[in-house]
Amino acid sequence: MTRITGYKRGVLLRALRVIADAEVEGRSLPARDLATALGMAQNSGHGLRKDLVDEGWLVIHEQGGGGRPSRTSVTDTGWEAIGGRKAVSPHAGARKCLCCGRVFESAWAGNRICGNCRQTDAYRGNGLDGAYQVPL
Question: What UniProt keywords apply to this chain's record, in alphabetical order (predicted)?
């Protein structure tokens, strides 16, 4: 664990809260969006996430490459640091993605597209076409 000052701890806790809120909504927050949400320069987001990982409050599951954001999740220690615990919908559970067919952990009943598919240009641009088929 790194040694952080009171000021930096406050910034990290605010960053952790923003990430936790996104996680509860079933989305992953890219580093640049994290920094923007905190009113900081976009290039600050990567350093914030690294510090959160160093504190043991955040885990990076997939390292982004080629401009893709990585998927993160708040650890139990992170939830304790922000004074709460992960809110889990009673309708959360494993579901099959309607785009790629892979099973993923869905945060709520209406969450039927996995995080990887949500990051595609086709999904973001609402350009879902014949390339995306519902696996039966």
Answer: Plasmid
pLDDT of residue 1: 47
**CA distances from residue 94 to 7, 43, 108 in whole angstroms, order as listed:** 39, 34, 10
pLDDT at 35 over 70: yes
Residue 45, both tokens: 């987001």
CA–CA separation, 116 vs 119, rounded Å? 5
Residue type present at position 53: V
How many other C-beta atoms can be found within 10 angstroms of the C-beta atom of residue 53? 16
- Higher-pLDDT residue of 120, 96: 96
More confident residue, 5 or 60: 60
Q: What is the pTM of this model?
A: 0.57
- Count of structural domains, the chain: 2
Domain limits for position 93: 89-136
Beta carbons within 8 Å of 101's beta carbon, 6+ residues apart: 135
> Which residues 6+ apart lie within 8 Å of 135 measured at CB?
96, 97, 98, 100, 101
Are residues 77 and 94 both part of a single domain?
no
